[in-house]
Amino acid sequence: MSDRVYFFDTTLRDGEQSPGATMNFQEKLRLAHQLGILGCDIIEAGFPASSAGDFSSVEAIAKQAGSSIQIAGLARCVASDIDRCWDAVKAAKNPRIHVFISTSPLHMEYKLKKSPDQVVEMAVAAVKRCTGYTSNVEFSCEDFSRSDKDFLCRIVGAAIAAGATTINLPDTVGYAQPEEFAALVDYVIKNTKGSEKVIYSVHCHDDLGQGVANTLAALRVGVRQAEVTLSGIGERAGNAALEEVVMALQVRKDFYGLEHGIKSEQLYPSCRLLSMIIGQPIPLNKAITGANAFAHESGIHQDGMLKNRETYEIMTPQSVGRKSTHLIIGKHSGRNAVHQKFESLGYSLNEEQLNSIFEAVKNLADRKKTIHDEDLMALVQQEIYRIPDRIRLRHVSVQSSDAGGVPPVAAVLMDVDGIEKSGAGFGAGPVDALFNVISDLCGRSPDLEQYAINAITGGTDALGEVTVRIREKGFSAIGRGTHPDIFVASARAYVDALNNLAKREEEGERIHCQLPA
């Protein structure tokens, strides 16, 4: 048995099913690129048959993927799903079709309304259809953990005989406990004909908080593919978190004795990128990547750390991409210092990008006493990794008072499609006034579905990160903005959302035009 574990990332498919985690076309391409840098072996890019948008993004990801990574698409055991999936992934240098069908008595009776014999027939037919396109076929037993163990051996054996090369055994509803899950996986591997021909995989949900534990337990009994997501996002309570499984294997290599190809130094940059794309901050106490993961407040802990950091840290911040350094960035820092700092954070900037970010750092240093790594990472996402916008905010001014009869007023100067526009107006509050003026200048009137403020770092001079979600004419979009002044951050977030909304509308029209009549 090989000691190599393959990481199958499904952030773009199962992860995107997490409420509020929808990504647009460009965001998916950017995240897929980062997953390649991270070292994922397989990316499940989406469910092509589910929508025209999903098909387009899977196809684009397949085209941009290099030869070192496999691109998978999900499909039901339905001929049209399989054909659509292949059309989306076939441009990849290493395409994979991933088919699934329910195997538990509950699902077969009430969801599929099929007999066990019919389910086996559907599985075999689906796998055979996939092998007509590619030899890289994955078959999944949905609701594996609540299925009959002997029926599992029967259907898995049939799928292997039909040509499946990877067998996935998912704890679809997060029901299993580590010991029983490992025992069931072990039983199927040992009692299924042809097991030696395939790689076994698990896909564990976290409904009872056991997703990572169940994944690790399965790896102990012979599974060699882990299906995971960044930060554990996904349906309901989410999936096993990629970064937690990786670091468990790495820190406790003495216990697991397993190898993998993930570049652990890219874990934090990857999770941070996802956080900024979906507008959901990484929880402070999140294992591996949370802000408190390497923070020590207790005097006893601090004393131990000063004497030997291993007394209270089982891994280093550097090992997960949280680079500690004595390089202090401020208003007196030179270009070379800024360049080195961003390189230490995992960003490789060209000359033009360095010029842009250097000015942004200088401007921030004039307003903020202490600049933290999180501030710099927010800046680079705001200033560098952005798609050119139709709307550009130039200046904002807000006046507000608690005096009765004096409503808050906002004034805005901005560029709309290259034309300078300015205006002022009132609102129920200062943020409402800002949004009203910006909407009027852009000629739009979206509904505001969500407004959230997060302090990226501590202190009264913390860089504020504002996230807004807007909807208009059936399209929704997320916008993000950062600035020490929360009103400026709010205006930036709203403008970002309007730009993203326009891009979603254009993308929707483009996809609609591409659909067959």
> What is the 3D form?
globular
Q: What structural category arises from helix and sheet content?
A: alpha/beta
- Euclidean distance between termini CA atoms: 51 Å
Averaged pLDDT, please?
A: 88
CATH fold-level topology of the largest domain: TIM Barrel
Task: Describe the structure using short key phrases.
single chain; 517 residues; alpha/beta; TIM Barrel; Double Stranded RNA Binding Domain; 3 domains; 8-stranded parallel barrel; 3-stranded antiparallel sheet; 17 helices; 14 strands; disordered C terminus
Summarize the structure.
This protein is α/β, with parallel strands linked by helices and about 525 residues long. It has helices spanning about 25-40, 50-65, 80-90, 105-110, 115-130, 150-160, 180-190, 210-220, 240-250, 255, 265-280, 300-305, 335-345, 350-365, 375-385, 430-440, 485-515; strands at about 5-10, 40-45, 70-75, 95-100, 135-140, 165-170, 200-205, 225-230, 390-400, 410-415, 420-425, 445-455, 465-470, 475-485.
Account of the 3D structure:
It is built from 17 helices and 14 strands. The protein has helices spanning 25-38, 52-64, 79-89, 105-112, 116-131, 149-162, 178-191, 211-220, 242-251, 253-256, 267-278, 299-307, 335-344, 351-367, 373-383, 430-442, 486-514, and strands at residues 6-9, 42-46, 70-76, 95-102, 137-142, 166-171, 199-204, 225-228, 391-399, 409-416, 419-426, 447-455, 464-472, 475-483. The strands form 3 sheets. The chain has an 8-stranded parallel β-barrel, surrounded by 8 helices. A 3-stranded antiparallel sheet has the order 9-10-11. A 3-stranded antiparallel sheet has the order 12-13-14. Helix 6 (149-162) links the parallel strand 5 and strand 6 (166-171). It is globular, with a radius of gyration of 25 Å.
